[in-house]
Batch of 2 targets.
Target 1
Amino acid sequence: MAELTYRDAVAAGIAQEMERDERVVLLGEDIGAAGGVFKATVGLFERFGPRRVRDTPISEQAIIGAAMGAAMTGLRPIAEIMFSDFFGVCWDMIANEIAKTRYMTNGQVALPLVIRTANGAGSRFGAQHSQSVENWAMAVPGLKVVAPSSPADVKGLIAAAVRDPDPVIVFEHKSLYSVKGEVPDGEALDALGAAKVLRTGKDCTIAALALMVPRAMEAAERLQAEHGIECEVIDVRSLVPLDTRTIMGSVVKTARLFTVEENPRLCGWGAEVASLVAEECFWDLDAPIVRITTPHVPLPAADSLEDATIPSVERIVDTVQRAMG
Amino acid sequence: MDILMPQLGETVAEGTVTNWYKQVGDSVRADEALFDVETDKVSTEVPSPVSGVLAEVLVPAGQTVKVGTRLAVVRGANEQAAPAGGAAPSHAPAQAAAGVHAPASQVRSLRLEADVAARSEKRKLSPVVRRLLAQHGLSAAGIQGSGRDGRVMRDDVLAHIGRAGSTQPAAAAAASPSPAPLPAAPAVAQATTDSSMCGAGERVVPLNSIRRRSAAAMARAWQSVPHVLQAIEADYSRIESARRSKGPAWQAREGYELTYLPFLAWATCQALLRYEQLNARIDGDRLIVSRRVHLGIAVDLAHDGLVVPVIRDAQDRTLSALGREIRRLAVGARGNKLTPDDFSQPSYTISNSGVFGTLITAPIVNPPQVAILSTDGVAKRAVVVASDDGDSLAIRPVGVLAQSFDHRAVDGAYSAAFLKELKRLIETRAWSDDLP
């Protein structure tokens, strides 16, 4: 068992898959000699060379288009979009082409590709470089979407994404890159579509994703210590497929659900979870479902304002405590 | 300040205090729920008119008293404790005048009894609590709530079940898709819902409060009233013709369909004015006959009980006015929007099963009324039309009108004459002229 940072675990996961399968290639802006702007691909260029680790021009459409062509012709590309905000210029290719190809060719052409991207706030990058856009991707049929919260998970889920026969979007979190965690030695291979119960509790369920997971865990500690409220914390991990069994099983147990979401409130992933739970678990609920989210605003760059928009540990504690009180 | 039994509608003379939300010594804010009142048809939550401390409760829960009776005293912050006068419940109008009457407008959220079960606990019940209560045949009334404002939470119910050692349906609370639950469990605990009574494939359906009340009333009526059923067949051609010619304009103007019922209600009122001993009530060995027709219309609440709102002075209303009033009552009854005045004592009742296409229904008279009319389905039939040139066959819309009557009040010939008059009106009136 080694302690790795989240960014090192990303590189380790990619390296593991490139080592295992020579069809796996990596392309993106500054991912080569520079090791990525977030240093999540350090060492790969040196280890696998310029043919398999390709720096591209600053053109996200070119990156996605090249990845799609590579996947169509037998490679298993991993494309990096530096900031998830830049998906804006990629959507025609991702949503209309990549997500639809298997369906429209009656299964004759599959696209086994991975799009990795740095998602989320915390770095004071402002409205165009801080967004959490996992809910955008979740809304497109034909894509799988994961957003790991720990070094071990990011390594295992990148491996699972690479081996999946269809397109998978991996949302890495900018504010998690420096977080350290234990990563098991040997080959890592996780499963797409599985949530994890990180903490068991009988009083309420908190479903969180990515950066919101450590915050929910810390909030759960404080709720237990300060208010005697025992929270069950679920790391949703995968939005598509969504592990409804784990989430609903927990809600049936606790009868209460909170979601903690970094994406803006309107049509955030938690809205879908809340809708499913309301529909399937209505007669198990002991109180309304409560969503803790970023408000529906463009993100501010100022430290204090950005901190005020993104759900914090204090806000989670306060919201849960007031709802449970 | 004295708290008095409010006037819950013009025709209501008394009410039953069913629940006090506060105990003596509790402080209460203005507009905070203070007690529940139930009349014979409606239950209502009454707020405190002032802020203060509940100093005395003079009428305990369960007691029925006249409108204006002193129920309690709420003492404001500056009020001195009045010398205790051994104040028993009193009907003195002087006291009524001195105290504060909660006006009808202040009485919030009038609702039908169907809602009483859930509301009488005053607290909101969550879906899981409702399900558990229904599954275990419990009422929230006896369960101590640990949630905010005393709300009964899931764990409170589970703890209660655990303590009571009640027969638990196998793994009722386990992680399985929940069955569609019953409506909120009745507050009155005598409804036996012990699921151990069930055999395989059976389940317990507790009667809601409306059904429990009507069950008792129907059984009493059936046992005490000597019923006679009489029916007559009527040709609805003229009504049908009026509906065809004036119905589209009615639909456009009023926004809903012009049904048979307003026609039948109008004709019934006119026939009752001629045969008024059917528009009467039995009082011992007397029959009290009325020239005013307060026409009860039975409304089915989606198979979840039956209520009978009343059209007051229906004899004075035009066909259009009856149509609108019937619509208002039916919609209001289904939406729990009616007031106690809408449920005052009817003098005669129409039960309309016709929408289901029934042939004939033998309704039960609801005393002290002496008769009730069932209007059944109208369907096209081949009928023999007699004329001087000989008989012929015609296709006509035909329906049965069936009246049950109390044989103590009238005899068969009288009832038959009434039915004949009703049939005559239906078949001969120029109905189209009654509609714009």
Target 2
Amino acid sequence: MTHSSAIVGSSWLLGLMLALAIGVTPARAADIDVAVKNPRAYGHVVGDRLTRGVRFTLPDGYRLERTSLPGQGKLNYWLDLVALSFDALDERGGRVEATFVYQLFYAPLQAGRRELPSFTVRAVGPDDDVIEARVPGFAFTMSPLIELQSEAEFGSQDNDIMLPDERPGLRDVAAPRRTALISVVIAWVAVLAWAWISDRLPGYKRGPFALAAARLKRLRRGTEPATPSALRVLHRAFDATAGRAVFAEDLDGFVAAHPAFADLRDEIDTFFAFSRRFFFVGVESNGDRRHTLTELQRLAEQCRRREARA
Amino acid sequence: MQGDSRLADWRARALRLEEQVNSVMVSQAYAVRRMLIAVFARGHVLLEGDVGVGKTTLLRAMARGLGGGYERLEGTVDLMPSDLAYHTYIDEDGKPRVEPGPVLRHGESLATFFFNEINRARPQVHSLLLRLMAERSMNAFNREHHFPHLLVFADRNRVEREETFELPAAARDRFFMEIGIAAPETREARRALMFDPKFHDADALIESVDEGLVDYTALNAFASELQNAISVSETLQNYALDLWQAMRDPAAAGIQLDDVDVNTLIAGGGSPRGMSMMIRAARVNAWLAERDMVVPEDIRAVFAETAGHRLFFNPIYELRRDEIIGRLLDAALARIAAP
């Protein structure tokens, strides 16, 4: 038997056992399911209120008999049930959340155990059959308000009855602080990267050709023919530099207004002539695509340098 | 190939005509080029300018170069539509006579009709003229007369407003172009106009233009051939559409003008007919520049003349029209990029 088939075999066995376990103890249909949510079981003093939530889940068609629950009022000499409320969790009353609020009137001389009494609830079925369930008691510790010490006295320098207030404990914030710092750094880096890409970095404005060069660099490198969008990127850079739409006929004026580009005149002329053929001749697949993306990138880079110098 | 050589042949003649008209006019190369475009796009022109800047001389020179009949009529407040068609007088025998008027006198050979001071004439006359422009025909002597080669040039006096009838929007829209003619700006040109005896005798000056340089009877056929020969790419169509949109809604195109609220500036205009005329003119401009496709520069060259008079401002801005329109058109051209 190989290793993998052993695993398959054992998981088979496990499945069988699970099926058996479910089969042996099937949930009885006519049971009230009781789930109790208890308060803390220590540190209670006289006058405290204890809130106990009990969720009853009844079988189909059963309704909880309210009179089987303890009534509001004095339960015994030290315990009152001061409030009792019901909350139906579904429309037919099949799931009920009962909230019991007890108040303690016992004043212990020393810490001692007490218990909220258990009680039995009843539910009536569709055929008037009655089922019962027991809500267990709840044991907890009650303490005296003040420790009984014969030698201690109020206001004594050496042995005061009251201990000084405990200072609230400080939570460890090192880990959250580190997380917050890292988040802030990441957010700032993201904002700066966005500002850089969209040229909104305050105090550091990149020129149109610097942006165009960066944008062209982001396009795929290679010798493939220049795409309309790549040509447009460069056109927008010329437009932005001139402050208005620049066409081939405007190049004299453009160079006159921006003498830094004068020595690139031939390259710029070639670019505009190519672009004019490309966009306006109407025949775009005439095999005359002399400008490749690499050439556009080179022209943008040359213009970027002139722009930075100007 | 034959088409190409025909285009080149016609272009040579057109440029010669332009050159000769330019030798008659001083510093009016811009207006002459626009007139030439209108002639080859077969569109009627509204001329605009001060008194005595040479509008009539320019027209007569152009008409002489084109050949065909030339007529000129002065718009006056008492001019009636019938005055265009009939000439009435008392003959030597004292009998009333009715002869063909200025429009009919040349018959079908009428090629250039100049209506001077069109806004002095009454709206009845305008409407007759508009029909003449749109259909190139007129009813007179109980039959319909056709003028297949006719181009109408009209001149508008902008100095006076008394006793004038402003052209309605529909009438202005029918003009292919509105060309402004200004007095020469340079001192040299003004000196020549004042002191060169050549410019004192307009008749002799116009004689210097060769008569019938361009055959006006063949212009219609050639104009449509030219329109088909010049291609317009999709990118350029988008550019023209963007321009049109920017004119209709300057605010959306991001156009801002000092001292003008562009949101409320435009009341209407920018008609489809106008935009198609703009492309017609751009094609002629491309042909004159020896290109077989239209580029944005062609549209730019004719934009102000073909689109400007078709835009109508809100009344509060209409009085400042001359000042605003140039800025608006320039801003649209600067703003809209192509490709």
